[in-house]
Amino acid sequence: MKGNGPLHIACLAGQTKVVQILLDNGANVNLKAQNGFTPLYMASQENHVETVKLLLANGANLQALTEDGFTALDVAVQQDHETVVVALLRSEKRKGFHALHDAARKDLTKPIKFLIQKGHAVDIRAPNGFTPLHIAAKYNSANAAVLLTNSGADIDALTKTYAITPLHAASKFGHANIVTVLLQAGAKPDKPNRVRKILISKPRPFIIMILFMPWYKKLYENRVSLLRSHWIK
């Protein structure tokens, strides 16, 4: 039976400085100990959020499974460690996005339910105006979409710039199952988005002269020819 190495012990105790020293000296950040526990799993289990962040920054595998098939995120949710759950979900650090957006993108229903129960806003906005339901619709996260709609998410939430709804997003990417979920939840099938205005600059006067006045066109061509011959010399 595998025992715990120094890195596992430091992670269990939340000794972040020691963890850093061990990693700097070649310790395997994803080494499995007894029951398949990784250092990240142990730090998550014990609610050591700074240690968790350090491990993630050094390449800890979020998807690593214990012998019973659990991840670090699973144990953090199970143990009610909110800050660790958020840290694990935000490991990719997409600026302005929330842990709920990341959970929706990955179709992780347990963390979504956990965060909503902890008071995180179900319709929290990303910089582009997307709610978690927009994200679920875009990435075909059917389970997340069902959970979010059942949790009171705004079915017809609009983004600021182009008034995109979750149904628009699902329709664009061809996610028929998400379209069905949203329609069954009451999404408006005929709701329009906001059309982007295309600005067409007015043609410059000299271009019009070149196109429609043969004598000016000839003058322009002669001038170009003279300039070319000057530079060739």
Automatic annotation (TrEMBL):
Gene3D superfamilies: Ankyrin repeat-containing domain. PROSITE patterns: ANK_REP_REGION, ANK_REPEAT. The lineage of its organism: Eukaryota, Metazoa, Cnidaria, Anthozoa, Octocorallia. This is Ankyrin-3-like, partial. Keywords: ANK repeat, Repeat. It comes from Paramuricea clavata. Pfam families: Ank_2. InterPro entries: Ankyrin_rpt (IPR002110), Ankyrin_rpt-contain_sf (IPR036770). It comes from the Eukaryota.
